[in-house]
Design a protein that fits this description.
By secondary structure, this protein is α/β, with parallel strands linked by helices. Helix content is 57%, strand content 18%. The strands form three sheets. An eight-stranded mixed β-barrel has the order 8-9-11-12-13-14-15-16, surrounded by four helices. Strands 2-3-1-6-7 form a five-stranded mixed sheet, with helices on both faces. Strands 4-5 form a two-stranded antiparallel sheet. A hairpin with a 2-residue loop joins strand 2 and strand 3.
């Protein structure tokens, strides 16, 4: 025992308390709660330090005993205890602080892309507005929505869809400055905030964004093509608050998408247009329930013998205050609102019911019904058609389902499966608006369509435009060579009818034959013709 000196233990305890005091100060600086407790502990440590110093000074001036050694061990152990407690507390506090920062980051950022979310975006716009007020500058808010992303997401699945969004955000990050804010709201909606902007450089950025997004994205060795529509709102011209600026940028974006433009700058007239569309969607939902939709029928005749061989069912909306609304005005809205499944089922029901009525009068007429891309992406659609055919006891061969050429090329694999199911029911398929899309000849040969309908834009002008006449002739020859029949739409005069006859067209349809008619008018017209 005499060989050990208590001085090193007292000095070690003193040093540990000194380190603990420094740790306690850090805790006191960081902790927002219980500051008094940590300050009290710090004061006690100072008192202990004084006590340790005095005790060590006393030991230096006297002979140490076993009791002194025992006390020095206790003091050293106390130093260790205080050091461990304070260090552990600091580590816990730092860990809590780290978790708090992570949670704060999650609360303010999009988890998929790590971009600012709506909450942080509003704060950034407010900051940009505050700076613009001081500098008498503009702030541009760009609302971006990807074109064709929904189809890609449905075709490839959400995993690849998420990967695509990450790739898009990566390209956009390269286009913005450090002073700008790039954020993701939801889905395929991105926002860019440009402080101190001008209309000219904002439009320039829109073109850069479009160029970046339109470069193909490579997924599993396949090039995926996207587009983008951008809406622009400007502070202070279009709004003084973040929510208003975002809302009006979104309205401008929808306008750009409808007009198939890269960008659109907000105009007050867009508000009225958007409101009218929203009202129309609500009224269209009611129209289905209140029997405001009606079908008109346009006859299709054989060029060879002039025989009436069928009719195309064309939907009309009999609005209670606006009169008849043509499908061009409400079908695109119905597709965006997710109403096409219900509308197509209604059209099929009405058309097959009418066909059953004609059957009672010994009229075996085929009926053509137009399909939406939504129908061709619905694996349950064929089952629905089959149930309706059975319900009305209708020959499937007398039902013709028309598919636009553009629709065929949206998710071809999915379309092929649904078309295969419909074909197996014995239903005839027709490719509508041929010549306006991009289908290849090889795809056309494999597609089980019995009929190709030449788009009316070529037929209506073929007497005045030699190029259109050549296109019509080439199409008729091509379709016959692959064993299909040809129908020409948009026939409006006798000269066009005679020319189509010389070219070998099978069927014609248009105002020269008859305008679309109500079922009663159609039947009266039929009787008159015979």
């Amino acid at each position: 025992m005499d060989t050990l000196s208590p001085i090193p233990f007292v000095a070690g305890g003193f040093l540990l308390l000194l380190l603990s005091l420094q740790t306690t100060k850090k805790i006191n600086d960081k902790s927002q709660l219980h500051n008094f407790d940590w300050k009290l502990l710090g004061g006690l440590i100072v008192l202990f330090l004084i006590g340790y110093f005095i005790y060590g000074f006393v030991l230096l001036g006297s002979m140490s005993s076993s009791t002194d050694l025992l006390v020095s061990w206790v003091l050293f152990g106390g130093g260790i205890f205080v050091f461990i407690v304070t260090r552990s507390s600091l580590r816990s506090l730092l860990q809590i602080e780290k978790f708090a920062k992570q949670e704060e980051h999650r609360a303010l950022h999009d988890e998929l892309t790590e971009l600012p979310n709506r909450l942080l975006l509003h704060d950034r716009i407010a900051q940009a507005i505050f700076l613009a007020e001081r500098q008498q500058a503009l702030v541009a808010v760009l609302f971006m929505n990807l074109d064709r992303f929904k189809e890609v997401n449905e075709a490839l699945g959400h995993t690849y869809g998420d990967f695509l969004l990450q790739e898009v955000s990566g390209r956009l990050k390269k286009l913005v400055r450090k002073s700008d804010t790039l954020a993701r709201l939801a889905g395929d909606e991105f926002i860019v905030v440009f402080p101190c902007a001008t209309i000219e450089n904002t439009i320039h950025i829109c073109h850069n964004i479009a160029e970046a997004i339109e470069r193909p994205f490579c997924i599993e060795g396949n090039d995926i093509a996207l587009g983008v529509s951008v809406g622009i709102s400007i502070y202070p011209e279009h709004g003084l608050e973040s929510e208003i600026l975002l809302q009006r940028a979104a309205i401008a974006m929808n306008q750009a998408k409808r007009n198939d433009n890269i960008y659109a700058v907000y105009e007050q007239s867009h508000d009225t247009s958007t409101w009218d569309r929203l009202v129309l969607i609500g009224e269209l939902r009611n129209a289905l329930d209140e029997n405001q939709l009606v079908l008109h029928y346009q006859p299709k005749i054989s060029v060879k013998d002039g025989r009436i061989c069928g009719a195309e069912a064309l939907i009309r909306w009999r609005h209670p205050t606006k009169g008849f609304i043509q499908p061009d005005h409400f079908i695109p809205i119905a597709e965006q609102a997710g109403l096409m499944k219900s509308i197509t089922e209604w059209v099929l029901t009405e058309a097959l019911c009418q066909q059953a009525e004609w059957k009672k009068q010994n009229l075996a007429l085929s009926v053509s019904v137009n399909l939406s891309v939504k129908n061709l992406q619905d694996f349950e659609f064929a089952e629905t058609v089959d149930k309706l055919l059975r319900h009305w006891d209708t020959d499937p061969a007398l039902l013709i389902l028309e598919i636009t050429e553009t629709t065929m090329m949206v998710d071809p694999d999915r379309v092929k499966k649904v078309v295969g199911q419909l074909h197996s029911l014995g239903i005839k398929l027709s490719i509508d608006d041929y010549g306006t899309g991009y289908s290849s000849l090889s795809y056309l040969r494999k597609f089980p369509a019995a009929e190709i309908k030449i788009d009316k834009s070529f037929v209506m002008n073929m007497m005045r435009d030699e190029d259109n006449a050549v296109i019509v002739k080439s199409t008729i020859d091509l379709v016959h060579n692959i064993g299909r029949q040809v129908t020409a739409e948009g026939v409006e005069d006798q000269q066009t009818t005679e020319m189509l006859s010389r070219l070998g067209c099978d069927f014609i349809q248009g105002f020269h034959i008859s305008k679309p008619k109500s079922p009663e008018e159609f039947l009266a017209w039929m009787k008159k013709q015979t």
